[in-house]
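User:
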Amino acid sequence: MSESGSGPGSAADDRLAPVLRPVRAGNGFEEALEQILQVLRLGLVPDGGRLPAERELADRLRISRVTLREVLKVLQDQGLVESRRGRYGGTFVRARPEPAVGGEDELRRRVEAVDVEDTLRFREVLEVGAAGLCAAHGLGDGQARRLRAALDATRDAPLADYRRLDTMLHLTLAELAGSPSLAAQYAAVRATVNDLLDCIPLLVKNLEHSQAQHGAMVEAVLDGDADGAREVTREHCEGTAALLRGFLI
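Assistant: Predicted structure:
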């Protein structure tokens, strides 16, 4: 039993029950990170307190221990938790430092300036619709080459360039849907999404997952699989939304 009372069956575990729940298979890393960030931001485990053991967390979230360790590594890198070894070891919540002047204020200003949930849902509607339209109506050879080139540009992109190239891929898909109105609306909502993404760290694990989804999305579009294109695009949008909710909301 941990000193913080976070062992199985403890009162701390009961407090975590409304937040920690099985994640969906498609976005296991992102949704698990979102939920544990919620635990930390809500103060359900106090500063200095210990999170449930890895096995318990993995069981609650229905993810592998490998995925959970990747999530905990992100939290360590962000200075939110620390790992201790030994008999009384585990993952402990660190006291959050005072924010730098302007840093936390700027983040809050950006979040408060937009309706985050509305932005994320509108983005999902537009992207899912664009992918479905492209797949259903088909792309010409030149259009298919443009889409593949946009996808290829995101592969092995330096971190500093990734978000710009990722944006270009999604803008290309919106443009190829054949609706100037949809493309214009998507460009506007994507600008807002990028403002929010700039407030959170670039996570290599998430980028690897996004790249796999990008590839599946493009292949479904080029294969004319409208249902598949819509589904993988929806899953992709939900993964990004989970990260933003975890860090910002």
